[in-house]
Write a structure and sequence with these properties.
Length: 295
């Protein structure tokens, strides 16, 4: 039975102006998936230190299950500063635990039972974690319903064209924002084309089921072969945008796995992300009005 929805990659502390908050895209994704009633798992690594123990304690408190190995490297931290409108800037420490996620028998067993996985480019900055992610993807069931979501998540200089190309070949859903799309299109040699045409090119070139393009306050798109969904971004009072994109992906994937249409999934994702923007930190409890749309 392929029952699990997995967030795979970095687990860390976001050190915000008001203090540290549990973060990392995979944990954010898995946490919000669990709020929508699916069996989620987070895969990462922490250090044998106070920050690592606190991450594991937080996961237990949030009933967030997974395979989080303790390895002989420091637990990851990110210094987050916010601009005047709450948009974060990240200083991501290197040589940390989540750069060294080991591939284990337990991880292979989880892969064989996984319906959907979300992974990014950041956790692939190191060879160890990159190889672990690749082996996990290869071990997943090869069925038409299996979802492999690449949430591209470009940060600092922690990506290469080779890693992006390989990840897009391995995924069947690509999620990217407008700024990342500009960067990718420059790398791939078609900078002069408008955003939607760039999306159609990527969708066809990599034979994707879907491509999700988020454009901040300018709305978001979901491209599928022959069709596109557009939803405007709601106007809300922003506390910060940390984790908003991860909650979007989690809501969208959860809705698709529960049989909703692309447009229904898209609208739930937009509403979920908008709510997370009104809260501080990446893992607020979602209101019943959102969760009940999938119950």
């Amino acid at each position: 039975m392929n029952n699990y929805v997995v967030g795979m990659g970095e687990a860390l502390w976001d050190v915000l102006p008001e203090g540290k908050k549990l973060g990392g895209a995979p944990a954010n994704f898995a946490y919000h998936v669990s709020q929508f009633g699916l069996e989620s798992r987070v895969v990462s690594a922490v250090g044998d230190d106070k920050l690592g123990k606190e991450i594991l304690d937080n996961f237990r408190e949030k009933e967030l299950n997974g395979i989080v190995e303790t390895v002989p490297y420091p637990t990851g931290t990110v210094q987050v500063t916010l601009d005047d409108v709450g948009v974060p800037c990240y200083d991501i420490k290197e040589g940390v635990a989540w750069d060294n996620i080991p591939y284990t028998d337990a991880l292979e067993e989880l892969a064989r039972q996984t319906r959907a996985v979300c992974f990014g480019s950041l956790a692939q900055r190191s060879v160890v974690s990159r190889q672990t992610i690749g082996r996990f993807l290869d071990a997943m069931p090869d069925t038409p319903d299996t979802l492999k979501i690449f949430d591209i998540n470009l940060r600092q200089n922690f990506y290469t064209k080779e890693v992006l190309c390989d990840s897009m070949r391995r995924c069947n859903i690509l999620k990217i924002n407008d700024e990342e799309l500009v960067t990718v299109s420059r790398m791939f040699g078609y900078p002069g084309i408008d955003l939607q045409d760039k999306c159609w090119i990527l969708l066809g070139k990599y034979n994707l089921k879907m491509l999700i393009l988020t454009c901040g306050v300018n709305g978001s798109y979901v491209f599928t072969p022959g069709c596109v969904s557009f939803v405007e971004t709601p106007r809300v009072q922003v506390a910060d945008t940390v984790g908003a994109g991860d909650s979007f992906t989690a809501a969208f994937v959860s809705a698709i796995l529960k049989g909703k249409t692309v447009n229904e999934a898209h609208r739930l994702a937009v509403n979920t992300s908008a709510f997370v923007c009104t809260q501080q930190g990446a893992m607020p409890v979602l209101p019943d009005s959102l969760r009940e749309r999938l119950m």
